[in-house]
Design goal:
Layout: H1 6-14, E1 25-29, H2 33-45, E2 51-56, E3 67-71, E4 87-91, H3 100-104, H4 113-122, E5 127-131, H5 141-148, H6 152-156, E6 162-166, H7 180-191, H8 205-218, E7 222-226, H9 228-234, H10 240-248
Parallel strand pairs: 1-2, 1-4, 2-3, 4-5, 5-6, 6-7
Helix pairs in contact: 2-8
């Protein structure tokens, strides 16, 4: 029985393997916050893309194989050089300031949605997913107002083959009435927030990330909008596949 020396094994391992078809390239704007981190981990870890490029404000040491930072120091999207990508993904969660990596990343403002989408389309993108923050109740008021006025029609007119919108799984909380009794009641209820019905709580970022990942892979051509109720149902136990089947007609 012949044996293989360690040196021969090393040489064999270093030989290029058989050529395989290159996968699509994904370009991600807004890989920040709990949801951005979850989505980034899933799209990189699943290895469904040949390369995942993440927009950044400044260079930073990256720790995920298959990911590349794309630094854009100018905030004017119209001045950016065209970058090839097959799939675009835009998210708006603010960076968590105690995470150094997230402070280095670039996150679009809501008013930049159409400009970023057009830039991705000019680079050859045929698929675009726009994902709203999963917990709208924690957003700054300025960001809430901006997201409420997203120019989705302008994005739809750009001509993407597949366009996916994923809504927040919980609507932004309405301000309480001004009466002191109402304010007192709101304060008491907030102290018992752990007793809220499950349907009133925001879903976890990891569940929304699963929905986004699956939609990018399975959505047929056309415009697909996931309303808050669908996002919540997909986050429940065994809820993802039935909701995908109902929403996208995929198995």
């Amino acid at each position: 029985m012949s044996t293989v020396s360690p040196l021969d094994a090393l040489r064999h391992a270093q030989r290029p393997g058989p050529k395989t078809a290159a996968g699509p390239r994904l370009l991600l704007a807004g890989a920040t916050g709990a949801l951005g981190n979850e989505v980034l981990s899933r799209v990189v870890g699943a290895q469904n893309y040949a390369l995942v490029q993440v927009l950044a404000r400044e260079p930073y040491v990256q720790g995920l194989r298959g990911m590349e930072l794309l630094a854009q120091q100018d905030d004017d999207v119209r001045q950016w050089p065209v970058q090839h990508a097959d799939v675009g993904l835009i998210m708006f969660e603010p960076p968590r300031l105690h995470y150094q990596r997230e402070r280095a990343l670039w996150t679009p403002r809501p008013d930049q949605l159409q400009a970023v989408a057009q830039w991705m389309h000019c680079g050859g993108g045929q698929t675009l997913a726009v994902v709203l923050p999963h917990d709208a109740g924690r957003l700054p008021q300025a960001l809430k107002r901006g997201l409420a006025n997203l120019n989705e029609q302008g994005v739809a007119a750009l001509g993407f083959e597949r366009l996916i919108f994923v809504r927040s799984a919980r609507e932004a909380q309405k301000a309480g009435a001004g009466h002191w009794l109402q304010r007192t009641a709101n304060t008491m209820l907030s102290a018992f927030s752990h007793m809220l019905a499950q349907t009133e709580r925001p879903v976890r970022a990891m569940h929304v990330a699963r929905l986004v990942e699956a939609a990018l892979l399975k959505a047929p051509p056309g415009i697909h909008v996931a309303p808050p109720e669908l996002v919540w149902r997909a986050a429940q136990k065994e809820g993802l596949q039935p909701e995908l089947q109902s929403w996208l007609g995929s198995s």
